[in-house]
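The following block was generated as part of the benchmark described in Methods. Ligand: zinc ion.
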Amino acid sequence: MHDDRRLIEGRLRRTLQRIEDAVWSHPVPVDLGRWDAPGEPVPVAEGLAAPYAPARVGEPWGPPWGTTWWRVRGEVPVEHAGRPVDLRLDLGFDPLRTGFHVEGLVYRADGTPVKGLNPRNQWVRVSDAGAGEAVDLFVESASNPLLLGGGGFDFRPSPLGDPETAGREPMYRVVRAELAVFEQEVWELQQDLEVLGQLAFELDAHDPRQWQLLRAVDRALDRLDTADIAGTASAARGELEGVLSEPARASAHRISAVGHAHIDSAWLWPVRETVRKVARTCSNVLALMEDDPDLVYAMSSAQQFAWLRDHRPEVWTGVVERVREGRFVPVGGMWVESDTNMPGGEALARQLNHGKRFFLDELGIETREVWLPDSFGYTAALPQLIALSGSQWFLTQKISWNTTNRFPHHSFRWEGLDGTRVFTHFPPADTYGSEVSGAEVAHASRNFSDKGDATRSLLPFGWGDGGGGPTREMLARAKRLRDLDGSARIEVERPDAFFQKAEAEYPGAPVWVGELYLEMHRGTYTSQAKTKQGNRRSEHLLREAELWASTATVRTGAPYPVEELDRIWKVVLLQQFHDILPGSSIGWVHREAVAAYEAVAQELTAIIDAAQAALAGDGEAEVVFNASPDPRAGVPALGAGPRSSTGDTTDPVTVEADGDGWVLSNGLVTARVDDHGLLTSVVDMASGREALAPGSAGNLLQLHPDTPVDFDAWDVDAYYRRTWTDLTDAESVEPVEDGVRVVRRFGESTVTQLLTLTSGEARVDVGTEVDWREREKILKAGFDLDVTTERSTSEVQFGHVHRPTHTNTSWDAAKFEICAHRWVHVGEPGYGAAVVNDSTYGHDVSRRDREGGGTTTQVRLSLLRAPQSPDPVADLGVHRLRYAVVPGAGIADAIREGYRVNLPLRVVRGSGEVVEPLVSVDGGGVVVEAVKLADDGSGDVVVRLYESLGARSSAIVSAGFEFDGVVAVDLLERPLETAGFEPVEGGVRLALRPFQVVTLRFARG
Ligand SMILES: [Zn+2]
């Protein structure tokens, strides 16, 4: 037999074009009216009542970020009686840009939504079998501009990401507005041919099935008259029946397909547009569920459900109904699909608390899987938090984006830093927005790493980001692939059905220990510094607000601001979305994030001030409030009172000239600053050992070019390290109170730093103000520490992780930029040093040659970047931040100083009496993370704490108030069976495993 497969392939491709053009027939035009909303989107009622002007096909419309309302009127022609008729409206859609430009939502004249319009979904059914019916529909369309190019990304700077710079030129043109008959049989033939053709070309040439499929396709095309496709489609389909009914092989991979739309809560559009994207996609899903009882759709992010409830109540009502049926499935159990590298421990707990609570309260659903397909790496703290929220599974696929190493598993048990293991799945199709194409299905089957012992994987399908979610074409493909020779088997089903079966069939699933580090997007720890800083500051203000408001309520009966705190938490949780906190959104989004953080800071400061005023009482004496988990200035942890020395060293800070520099001392630390403003010595008095590497300069600022290959705001690529400038020239260096002030100019920028000591505290602070005017540069601040170690230790949520300081393997080398929270520590047995910060997440740690032999360890903070895409002015402007070096520090010291630089003492005038803490802990390494009143308004006191050193520990937690009983609870404050929990007089005794998180609930009568 001659090999004519290429000819058949070409014939099929060309014929499918002709078939596509024949899916609709007998078009008649409709009357089109148009109204351009003058600014931001308007309420639906206002759009419906607007003054519409006549419009026609071909006319331009749509300035960047505009909203245009269309009115469509027509009549179903009488000759179409008995046939389905659709409105086809093409507003200038480009199928290659689905989710990234024009979108619309269709309404009836009464304002009820019908379905979304998208590049891959340009039709609305107006009549199933009628004729002569009047059509009167409205469309609210968004002319969102295309950022980052189209099908392939283009990272040139664009002014379109902010309405202030985007201009008003119309970007789109109406292409089609007509009523047409939907030719069902032609469409079915299109689905048959696409599925069989795509399958055939995924099969091996040695597989007889490939040849059988191609022969059948060839025969079907012989039967199709391209001059009368509608009239011959059935005959062509008849030739395909045989090959379509051959069952799948016994060993075929099993795919659980789940309808889905990954809708970024903000990214190349602002939050307000996501509100509409969610409504459009959900309208589409509800309409498709009407048409196809097989559709199961999973949607994450309680925030997105809340937007529906609050902004599109008709869509919400429809969703609630389908949730009850079990077809519309809330997943994820988080408020948003957050980043998990940077949110603090308490914030990550609240992502789960607020997410799961919303699904329980509003929908009666307890979600069981955490669903984060797209976040940029996953903290080792997550498995424990998943379990403590009452969930049991985890899903992502992002690690398939690794640029260096291939992750070895698709189904595995993920072990977090405390030892909790969670069954985890990475969909092997390597996408969270499948089209159910032959290539994707075959790739999933081939790529699935665990195929020897496990048989099934999950496939999320549907257009994301406002592209409209699943389509009838995807469902048609899934149905044909249910049981088809040569293909994996596809079942459309709920994620929990998949997880139950996948976990049960794979009891020996391999274990992966520790963080899921994404070998990509390492610039997201640093981009958009003000967003990072807003997050860090908000998290600590929330800690203070809850602590002092609870204390005030218990001590004085002041009302607890439960609603304000709930609302503020949700604002902060939204900004942790995986394109906001990582800094990868357009300028508009980051401007709004910074404004949101400002408002949050004001509200929280007011809550703190009111609570502290109530607690301090009347008078003019000084009352010092200490929100940190360690005593400070003689004030107990989590309490308040007058400053006292209590035997600690509280020598005043001295600054003395010394040759070409100055010596700073406070009895705990001595530091020397030279006339270039560089640290030449840092010694803690306890050990007397020099912390800085011989011959090195501490607090050395270094400037690197930062020009990643792709994804500017996301990535910093390894070659950046090979080129740099040491910023050692100082414009001025002068002594000031408690330290030395240094001013440096470089490029177009200026940095002013205050190197200071604080009485009673064992670190050298570097207060930094940068007027940052560089583009595509990264600014690092480094300390070369005289410590030899194979690993660094970084704070993460509720604990810390170790990463290599060497580059032995490709896995080690890929971690050239790491994320840390308040501190990074490096140490040898008996000695170490820490670098702490109040705003910074990105760091790098590397080994250096030591003068005189051996190695030293350089710790650097990534202070600022300036990527130009998608925000061309990212990070330009004035930044104020703080970091510090802590010489002679163990891990416990690093933890303490990390809290201190983020939680300044607050001084209030009052009675001068001691305010006893609500809770005190007696036991090494056990840290209180949150003190709050219970979410249910009962007035119970909730205390969350964790073992911080990675050691087994016991502690007694004592309540400083009367209580009726104490229980351990989960993150939703529900009783939780907890080992090592023993109530004792006045509190509870705990036996904790390394990094265990425990939440206590004290009942108050
Ligand atoms: Zn995303």
